[in-house]
Predict the structure of Class I SAM-dependent methyltransferase.
Amino acid sequence: MLAFWEKIILPLLQIFGVRKIVEIGAENGWNTSHLLQYCRAVNGELFVIDPYPRFDVLEYKRLFHKEFHMLMDYSLEILPHLRQYDAILIDGDHNWYTVYHELKLIEAMASQDGKFPVVLLHDTQWPYGRRDMYYFPESIPPAYLHPHAKKGMEYGRSELLEVGGANSILYNALYENGERNGVLTAVEDFLKQTPLSVSFHQAYSNSGLGIIVPKHDAVDMQIQAILSLSGL
């Protein structure tokens, strides 16, 4: 997400007047820091969902005690309890099951509250646009769990490498493509069945950034302009 902050994410937050933000997957907290500074400037709040954050949570709370809320659990456990957020950044477990059901929970919140948030999803392109990755395979129901291994990937090759390759320390699905496989597939499946009127946009660099917003012609034109000017 960090690569998109200045040219895409921040302008979108400003256009939509975002004040209440949810971040799924914070890792080292670098993008979290940007979000917290934004929240301080607009008198907003940030709810961070990550079962194992890799930053000093107490220090972030000391620096941003009004803006920062840390929720250390899986996203599918936390999202049913969050309401009326204006934007959500999804950069957690990059697999079909998790992302699809995160989107369904966002849809349920929006249907109840009458407002669909700005949704930003990382990894809509290679390597995880069409391939599942599991941080915690045991958390995925067996029916949705693809065969997987801690082996690396190579662009343009479906099967995993025996040695080396990208992200070889993570649990990657053995093959690309197919049903219920990957972040972009989850987004497309959600868009096919949601009754809500939404638009989908993408930036294609840095593993891809998907953007789902309430459908509005003028806003869609603004987003396309931002993406075009960003060069990302």
Remarks:
- The first strand starts at residue 20 and ends at 24.
- Residues 96-113 form the longest helix (18 residues).
- The chain is about 35% helix and 20% strand.
